[in-house]
Amino acid sequence: MSKSNRQMKLGAFFMIPGHHVAAWRHPESAAEDVQQFHLYKRLAEQAEKGKFDMIFFADGYAINDKLQSAIEHTVTVRPDPLILLAAISAVTTKIGLTATVSTTYNEPFHVARKFASLDHLSGGRAAWNVVTSGQNAEALNFNRNEHLKHGLRYERAEEFVDVVKKLWDSWEDDAIIVDKKAGRFAEPSKVHEVNHNGDWFTVKGPLNVSRPLQGHPVIVQAGSSEAGIELAAKTAEVIFTAWQTIEEAQNFYKNVKGKLSKYGRSHDDLKVMPGVFPIVGKTEEEANEKQALLKELIPEKAGVGLLSSLISYDLSPYPVDGPLPDLPHISEINGGKSRFQLLKDIADREQLTIRQLYQHIAGARGHREIKGTPVQIADQLQEWFENEAADGFNIMPPYLPGGLDDFVEQVIPELQKRGLFRTEYNGNTLRDHLGLKRPLSSFSKEHSIG
Amino acid sequence: MSKSNRQMKLGAFFMIPGHHVAAWRHPESAAEDVQQFHLYKRLAEQAEKGKFDMIFFADGYAINDKLQSAIEHTVTVRPDPLILLAAISAVTTKIGLTATVSTTYNEPFHVARKFASLDHLSGGRAAWNVVTSGQNAEALNFNRNEHLKHGLRYERAEEFVDVVKKLWDSWEDDAIIVDKKAGRFAEPSKVHEVNHNGDWFTVKGPLNVSRPLQGHPVIVQAGSSEAGIELAAKTAEVIFTAWQTIEEAQNFYKNVKGKLSKYGRSHDDLKVMPGVFPIVGKTEEEANEKQALLKELIPEKAGVGLLSSLISYDLSPYPVDGPLPDLPHISEINGGKSRFQLLKDIADREQLTIRQLYQHIAGARGHREIKGTPVQIADQLQEWFENEAADGFNIMPPYLPGGLDDFVEQVIPELQKRGLFRTEYNGNTLRDHLGLKRPLSSFSKEHSIG
After folding, report:
1. pLDDT at B338
2. Where do the Luciferase-like domain residues begin and end (chains A, B) (predicted)?
3. How many residue contacts between A and B have a Cβ separation below 8 Å?
4. A307, A328, A361 — which closes off a domain?
5. B191/A71 Cβ within 8 A
6. Which residues of chain A make contact with B302, given a CB cutoff of 8 A?
7. How far is A276 from chain B (nearest CA, A)?
8. Which parts of chain B sit beneath pLDDT 50?
9. How far apart (Å, rounded) are the C-alpha atoms in residues B194 and B214?
10. Which residue has the higher pLDDT, A338 or A395?
C-alpha cells in the first residue's frame, strides 16, 4: 500500500506507432495507420479507460536532417498535435490533452487562442508542452538559415509564455454576461488590452476567445538544461524529464522544487514526471523476448541516425561496432544539451560501442527503460514515487497499440491495488486530475489584493 | 425539376450564434454556448443530415477596433476554426470542413501541415478558405504597427498558397510503403525537398505529413476585388462572393470563369458560391415577423459599429438617422475594397440613412438576403443557379441553431424535390461532393509528362 494518500500522476506519451525507433516494424504495431484517426481514437479511449491524467504528443517542424535514412527506415510523418488532440477531445470526456507547440516559430496570439479554444471545447482538458525548436532543419522551413542559439531560444520562450498568459487573462472569468434583454453580451471593463511590448513580441490584445475554463491550460515543459530548469521553475506545472538512475532523478527533483519559492510558488505547484519506457511481460522471460525482438528490428542506418540526432553530432562516418569518437565539448552543442550529456555519460560509464548505444537508447531515447512483470514495473515506479524522485510518470509505450494495452491492462491494476493510482476520475478538468490550482487572472481584483 | 442533372453545391456558413449582428439576442439563439462543443456538434450533425457539401467558419485575429461597443453589444469571441473543425471531424463522417486561415500572419509550413493533418484525420474532408488580414487591430497583435497594404497582402497570399501546395506535394501519393519485413517505411526518391526561395518565404521542406488524401485540401476564396478575382482564377476551387442582384452575380460569374483558361483551368474547376442569408417562414407573414424581430434587436451602437467596420470608415460621429457622409475614394480604402463599393452602391441607390443601412446589412453583411416560404426561397436559389449566376450557395443562417434547422427541414426538401440538390452523399471526400478533380502532384511523373 501507498505510504500516504498521495497518488501518482500518469501521462500516456505517444509516439506513433511507438517510442521504439523500430516500433513500426513490430508485427503488432499499427504502422499503416499513423495518419488515421481510428488509431488515435482507440489509443485515447484506452488511455481514458486506464484513468491516465493525460495523453501527450511530442512534435517537430521538420524531418530530422541528421537522420539521412530517416525517411526510408523510420516514421517521419506525424499529424499536427493540436489538430489531433482537438479531434480526440470530441471522443473523450475526462482525459487531459497535452500538445507540444514550439515558441521558436510561432506567434503568441495564435498559440494562446488555439489552446484557449481547445480548453473551452474540451471542457478544461488542454495542456501546452512548451518547447523551443533546436534543429537546423526546422529553421530552414521558416525563412531562416540557421536555428536560434540556445540562450536566445529560451529568452524568446520565456517572453512567449508571458504573452500567452496575459492573453489568456485578457477576459476576466466573469466578463461574459449574455443579458439578451439588455443587449449586453459582455462587460467591457472586464476585458483588457494586454499592451505587451517586449524584446521579441509586441501584442496589443485582448484575445478573441474568453478566459480558458482552467484559467490557464496546464503548462508542461521538458528541457532539463540550466535555462530549461529555470524556465520550468518559473512557469511549468508539469515537467517531463529523462533520468536513468534514482539518484539523478532525486537530485533533479530537489533542485527544481527548491527553485520554486524564488518565483512565489509552492512544492505542489509543479509535478515532476520523468519519462518511462516500459516493456511489460506476463513473465520476465516474455519481457526479455519483447525487448530482444525490438532490438533486432532496428535498421543499422536508422540506429546510427537516431543516435546522431539525439547528441546533435553526425556518427555516420564512424565504425558502428567501435566506440564513440571524441565528441565536442557540451558548450559547442546547440541542440538538446541535457540529452547530449546524458548519452555521453551512459557511453562512458558502460563502455558501449555505437551499435550497443543505439540499441540501448532506441526505445527510451535517454529515458528510463523498465522491463519485467507488472509487479516488477509497479515496484520500480513506486520506489521513485515514494522517494522524492517523481510525482508521477510519462509512460512511453514501445509500440502501439499493444504497448499501451499491456500497461493499461496489467500495470495500472497493480498500481491501483497498491493505492498508488486512481480507480476513477474525481474531477473533470486536467487541473482537477493533477491537483493543480486554477490560476487567478492577473487582471482580477482578488489577484491585485492578494 | 432541374433543367439538367447538374445539382447545386451548398455550404453551411456559420457565424455563432448566427450571422445577424443581433442573433445572440434572439430568444431561440444559443448565445450561452458560443464556446461549447455541444452546440457545434449539433450544428455539424444537422448540416450533415441536410447533405450540405461543407460547413464553413470565417475568422479574424482581433476584436474589431472599428466597433467600439463590440465587446458589450456583440459576440466577439470565437474558437479557432481549425481546432473547431478538427473536433467536428471526429463526430461527422461525410461533410466537408472549411476553415478560414489568413496568409498574412501565418507561416506556410504550419498551414500546410495543419490542413494536411485535418485532411488525413477526416478522411479527405478539409478545405482552406484563403484570406488576407485587413484590419489594423490584427496587425497590432502580431508585432506590427499597421497592417500590410492591400496589394502586398495579395502578393504574399499568392506566394503563400504556392508554397503550401508545394509542401502538400512533397510526398508523392505512393511514397509510403510500410514494408515491415524489409524495414522500409517510405521510398525516399518519392519524398522531395521543395526548396522554395521567394520574396516572402524561404522553405526547404519536405513536409512531415504525407500527401493529403484529397491531393490538396479544397482551396476556397472570398475576395472579389480585382486582385482577389485574379488570385481566385489562378488558385481557388470555390469562390465565396457577395452579390445583391442576379445581374451583378452573372457579371462576376462570367468574369471569373472567363479568366480560368488563362491559368490552364476549365469551367468546372471553380465553383462560384455566393452567400445567401435566408429568413425562412412557413408563411410570408412568419418570415416578415422573423425579419422584423431581428431588426428590432440591433443595439444602435452595434449597428453603427458594424457598418463602420464593413466600409472601413468610422461613422460614429454622424447622426444615425441622417444620410451617409461623403466617403473617401475607394483607392484610399485599405480594407475590404469590394465590400466598401457594394455598400456605398446600396446606400446611393436606395437613399438610406445610416440606421436604415445598418438594419439592411446587419444580417447578410452585404450578401443577398432572401426571405419567404421554402418554395419562394427555392425559387430564388433556382433562378440564380440555372442562369449562370451561381454553382451553389453558402447559406448564412440568421441565428443558430434555429436558422439552420429551418433551412434543413424546410428548404432542402424543396430543393431535393426539384432535383436541384442531392438526397444522399455519393462519395466520401469534399472533392467528391463538389465534383472537383483530385490534383496531380507537381512532383509526379504523370504530371511532368502531361
Report:
1. 75
2. 21-297
3. 230
4. A361
5. yes
6. 183
7. 26
8. 1-2, 448-450
9. 19
10. A395
Question: Which of A114, A183, A210 has the CB atom closest to B80's CB atom?
Answer: A114
Give the nearest partner residue to B141 out of A31, A184, A204, using CB atoms. Answer: A204
What's the maximum distance between 2 C-alpha atoms anywhere in chain A? 79
Q: Which residue segment(s) compose the domain that B137 sits in? A: 10-282+366-449
Q: Is the pLDDT of residue A365 over 80?
A: no
pLDDT digits (tens, 9 = 90+) for A294-334: 998 998 888 888 888 888 888 999 999 999 998 888 887 76
Question: Which of left, alpha, beta for B325 (phi over 0: left; psi -120 to 50: alpha)?
Answer: beta
Answer yes or no: do A120 and B171 touch at CB < 8 A. no
Rounded to a whole number of angstroms, the distance from the CA of A301 to the nearest CA of chain B is 11
Interface test with A, best of B185, B199, B207 (most A CBs within 10 A): B185
Q: CA of A438, closest CA in chain B: separation in Å?
A: 19
Q: Are residues B139 and B263 in the same domain?
A: yes
Contact B208 A140 (CB under 8 A): no
Cα–Cα distances (Å) from B162 to A199, B155, B212, B258, in that order, read 32, 11, 16, 22
With CA atoms as reference, the chain B residue closest to A136 would be: B204
B103 CA to chain A: closest CA distance, Å?
A: 13
Q: pLDDT digits over A53-91, tens only?
A: 999 999 999 997 555 588 999 999 999 999 999 999 999
Could you tell me if B333 and B424 lie in one domain? no
Are B60 and B80 contacting, i.e. CB atoms less than 8 angstroms apart?
no
Task: Tell whether A277 and A343 lie within a shared domain.
Answer: no
ipTM of this predicted complex?
0.94
Q: pLDDT, tens digit, for every residue of B40-49? A: 999 999 999 9
Final residue of a structural domain among B344, B361, B378: B361
* pLDDT on residue A363: 78
Q: Within this chain, do residues A117 and A188 fall inside the same structural domain, yes or no?
A: yes
A185 → closest Cβ in B24, B61, B120: B24
The answer to the question of residue B1 being in a domain is: no
Indicate which of B65, B89, B208 best probes the interface with A, i.e. most A CBs within 10 Å of its own CB.
B208
